[in-house]
Amino acid sequence: MKKIISVVGARPNFIKIAPIHRSFQKYKSDINHLICHTGQHFDEKMSKVFFDELQMPKPDFYLGLGGGSHALQTSRIMVEFEKILLDEKPDLVIVPGDVNSTIAASLVSSKLHIPVAHVEAGLRSFDKKMPEEVNRVLTDHISDYLFVTEKSGITNLKKEGVSDAKVYFTGNVMIDSLVNFMPFIDKSMFIEKIGVNKKNYVLATFHRPSNVDDEKNLTQLINALNNISKVREVVFPIHPRTMNNLKKYGLFDKLNDNIIVLEPIGYIDFLSLSKNAELVVTDSGGIQEETTYLGVQCITVRDNTERPITSEIGTNHMIGTDFNKVVDASISILSGEVKSGSIPDLWDGNASVRITKIIHDKLFSQ
């Protein structure tokens, strides 16, 4: 019996590991798949909602290490996760994404000579000011299995000198979760609950420090949403970080009446909002992927993306961080100037099946 520990820390991690956990059940006579939740995401209520909705078991290990600076958070996770590794002696550690939990678990595992598998490897924004970019690059270079979501990942890893033997193009596990839960998404009554009409509203989400921590940028963001709301209702689930800054800078009361403000919502209801929106305006990475699969127009308010396939063949519009351009692009799209898109290769709901088969075959061929 082989033992594998998957490490999750923030909500996108849960979405990526859930289908992998389900796929490992096929091999449960050979593989014991355990889950360690670092607690990096500080909203424990939301963490619980995500675990419940994604039909994942209670984590085998919970570290409860949210909050603090990047250095403090990463170091605390390393110290506590090392104890788990020394006790459990797993045959493999799986880390998804690019959060502090990802690099912390990778470093500890690598130094204890425990193989690491990175899910969502090879993505690059080429912006070292993003902490996620540092986490991605470092994790890739100390991992033994690199599972890639799109072809840019293969190109990036090759340029960085990573051995082809470590790289596997398996598709996107985020899409696996979306496909798996589509029946629940379609049955969601959340749109009716908040009183908006399908394909007649704009969904907005913002959480990146560059957009929400600076008072000037956040003011411009609110002005942009107010302008868009003159054309369509805007549904705005507000991230805790964003809400704190809106209150800090006295901007919350500046939101127009045509903006429906929501607290953070669960996975199923959020995807129902995404699927039925006429347009999504965001600075999220994962939402670029989900809207591409759903064929929903998406404006990304960032100067770069680590997921270029979403704008190359998907429905994502990379507009940059000039909020005047964001408003202009939004109005153009809402006026009918939409972008036709297609679904990237291997975004078919079976990435986790491919990943778990590779891991099983590799572990039992040694």
What key attributes describe this structure?
46% helix, seven-stranded parallel beta sheet, six-stranded parallel beta sheet, 366 residues, Rossmann fold, globular, 17 helices, alpha/beta, 16% strand
Structure overview:
By secondary structure, this protein is an alpha/beta fold. The protein has two domains: 2-172 and 347-363, Rossmann fold (3-Layer(aba) Sandwich), CATH 3.40.50; 183-334, Glycogen Phosphorylase B (Rossmann fold), CATH 3.40.50.2000. The chain is built from 17 helices and 13 strands. The chain has a seven-stranded parallel β-sheet with strand order 3-2-1-4-5-6-7, sandwiched between helices. A six-stranded parallel β-sheet has the order 10-9-8-11-12-13, sandwiched between helices. It is globular.
What's the SSE blueprint?
Layout lengths: L1 E7 L2 H14 L6 E7 L6 H10 L7 E2 L7 H19 L3 E5 L3 H12 L4 E6 L9 H12 L2 E4 L2 H9 L7 E3 L3 H8 L1 H6 L2 H5 L6 E5 L3 H4 L2 H14 L4 E5 L2 H9 L10 E4 L4 H10 L2 E4 L3 H9 L3 E3 L8 H4 L3 E3 L4 H12 L16 H13 L3
Parallel strand pairs: 1-2, 1-4, 2-3, 4-5, 5-6, 6-7, 8-9, 8-11, 9-10, 11-12, 12-13
**Class from secondary-structure proportions:** alpha/beta
Q: How many DSSP E strands? A: 13
Count of discrete alpha- or pi-helical segments spanning 4 or more residues: 17
Instruction: Give the domain tally.
Output: 2
Termini Cα gap:
13 Å
Largest sheet: 7 strands, parallel
Radius of gyration, in angstroms, nearest whole number: 20 Å
- From the 3D coordinates, which CATH architecture of the largest domain would you assign? 3-Layer(aba) Sandwich
Helix content: 40-55%
Sum up the overall morphology in one term: globular
Measured by DSSP, the beta-strand proportion falls in: 15-25%
Indicate the low-confidence ranges by residue numbers: none
CATH superfamily of the largest domain: Glycogen Phosphorylase B
CATH class of the largest domain: Alpha Beta
Mean pLDDT: 95
| Helix-strand string | EHEHEHEHEHEHEHHHEHHEHEHEHEHEHH
CATH topology call of the largest domain: Rossmann fold
As laid out across the biggest beta sheet, the strand order is: 3-2-1-4-5-6-7
